[in-house]
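retry 2 of 3: previous attempt timed out while embedding NDP. Reduced batch size to 1 and resubmitted. Inputs unchanged:
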Amino acid sequence: MNLNNSQNTFENWKKIPFAERQNLMQNLAEILLKNKEKFAEIITKEMNKPISQSISEIEKCAGMAEYYSKVENVLDINKIKSEFAYSEIHHEPMGIILGVMPWNYPFWQVLRFAVPAILAGNVVIMKHASICLKSGDALQELFEEAGFPKHTFTHIKVSHDEIEKILANPLVQGVSLTGSEKAGSAVAAAAGKNIKKSLLELGGNDAFIVLNDADLDQAAKSAALGRLQNCGQTCVASKRFIIQSSIYDEFLEKFVTEYKTYIVADPLDKDTKIAGMAREDLADDLEKQYQKAVENSAEIILPLERIDKISFQPGLIKMNLGNPVLDEELFGPLGMVLEAKTDEELLEIANNTKFGLANSVWSKDKKRLEFFINNLQSGTVSINQITKSDARFPFGGTKNSGYGIELSPNALKEFTNVKIVLGK
Ligand code: NDP
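retry 2 succeeded.
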């Protein structure tokens, strides 16, 4: 692949002052909002997200671009007081950064990576999921319409094999991937082989922990939303619902009532809360995981009922400890419920996973919450709410959920080289 155009753009782009780059981010935010219905329709037609949720995704992208258009420039030269005349820390953009992006939030995942990387002075080439090529084209047009120089953001349509060759190209300086552990491990290995930086945002198997003093009505409503928005295909979705025994029956009844309000319907209808999954093979995989869980003694609370090739009436299963599916990510409309007596047992179950992205805890007691805040192994701990990434705060995983920081001012530094200037 000829990357000279991207490299030539980089040579000029890195010299553009930060404030001027920010003005273009403001344009990007405005174009997103102005065209939110059009962009949302592309998303929904490509991966079946209910249209109201696709519109929210575009609004969230616009809010994030707006945030970065005003963010503090943490890349400014930092002069440190010392005995030296020259005593400075510089952050310099790296060059061409590759993005390998998934289909579940076709605009958000791409922009979450690309906006801070580009604002820092890099240029981006982006391979989108193979079902999201129209989203990829629309994103490239978006950057061009906002006034970014041509080749600041380029949508590249390449196969998996070509990704390895791209990472071997000396002009490419790093890669950011959002997706499965398998894809993350393969792409990060190729980056490592070529001594290139990688950032991985992978899956999760997050806990939604309900203590016996929680507001159960609110918790039940949020639990259903946390599991079923975007048809369960969200990395930070609540996947394991760990409930304190003394309120188990009461919570479960409320949870099931909320869950049943999610009825599969036309994704283009604005009232639809849940529609089909993104691809038939993903639905097949989920059905196999459901069958495996049941074969291993999971108890069916609500059956996962296949309606057509891609759609299910959502399912809920009560898991027994030791069920092998407990440590798998369920990326679809199927929730796992567990019960435990003490706070210590709830915590132990929550942490007993290879993932660590974004757990959620429900309680009114500050002391008990503190115990979970200090001991949960995840990049985010959400208190009395489901996890929603927020442009102002760093976002990232622990354990097999990945490494590196997205969002917040911190993300501006991810694809920069630190240069120290020191002397007399
Ligand atoms: P993948 O991880 O396979 O896809 C994500 C992106 O990586 C796509 O652009 C894909 O391209 C690309 N990709 C995959 N393998 C390679 C490779 N070896 N080399 C280069 N690029 C690669 O996700 P799937 O679509 O297969 O979904 C499977 C599972 O991944 C889900 O069930 C879920 O568990 C997890 N996932 C997690 C996401 C998250 O937000 N953390 C997002 C999406 C999926 P292509 O589309 O062409 O295969």
